[in-house]
Design a protein that fits this description.
This is P68 RBP/TagC-like beta-propeller domain-containing protein. By secondary structure, this protein is mainly beta. The protein has a single domain, classed as Tachylectin-2, Chain A, CATH 2.115.10. The chain contains three helices and 21 strands. The chain starts with a helix and ends with a strand.
Amino acid sequence: MKKLFSILTRFYQPYSVTVPLNTHHLEQKMDSPHFASLGDAAEPITLLRTGLGNQHIIQGLAIDHRQNMLYTTHVEGHPEQGVINRFKFHSSNLWSAQDAQKPSRLIGHQGISVDPQTSFMFASAGSAIPNKGWYILKFQYMPHAEPINTQVIQVFDKRYSKITNTMPTFTPDGKYLLVRGNNHKRNVIRIFKSDLIRQKKLTDLCFLYEDEWPIDSGFTQDRCAFQGLSTDGTYIYLLSDNKNKGPKRIYVYDFTGKLIQKMDQVTLGHFEASSSHAIRYWEPEGLTVDSRNHQLYILYTIGNSGQFLGRIYRIKINT
């Protein structure tokens, strides 16, 4: 049963009046003589993947601080199969994958996350799962093999879209799980206590959510796709774009569903991409929060058709 969100908000410290992201580090007009800067965040990281489909469009990322690892996802084949790459954290700005998992039809098109308390991975449900928009997948990463200990968990019922990518993500303390759904063409965020999965071992959470609220319709207007969902435990970060066209969007909410920050002119990375003949494609594909360094990782796919790289921009979160 849905609960009053006042119960949930007791677990979170009130946010300050300072907005979490520096707008001038992210937004500029496309024809501006100035460019969006990284400010005081680190230089971008370029990712070199391995495994099947390693030059396909990258579709999401996640951090596992317990193992000091970063994961990415992309899809391969028809019907689609999700492929996970694993990277070790280091100080270089060029990261090569340590290994990759074999493709799996259980793993969906967009969005991955790591449970910070257990290091189990979670993903949108894949093509092998009927009505995939109602489900998330829990699994353990296995290098050079298919995922193990898989579990399909229902988070929406038949009133919701059957094809939406659910994009599971956790608060940094691991207490709450967030997912995205779509109800009559309106995107929504649902929030669950993660102990329903971790301790109670439940696989049907449809009516056990703490809260649900709609996302501003402007977030996906002009046929922009919902590309990323992450949280730092105080704010919820959303990313959308219209493929390789025009500025991108980042919206920031608090846990009550209040829109805190709205950026419709995100041009981060555009000028770098447009200045290189080797980069014809510039599309953001995911978000994750680095809770240790208070940074938002914004993942872009860059390159040309059939030869795509991942590039991560790290932006400071004001605390």
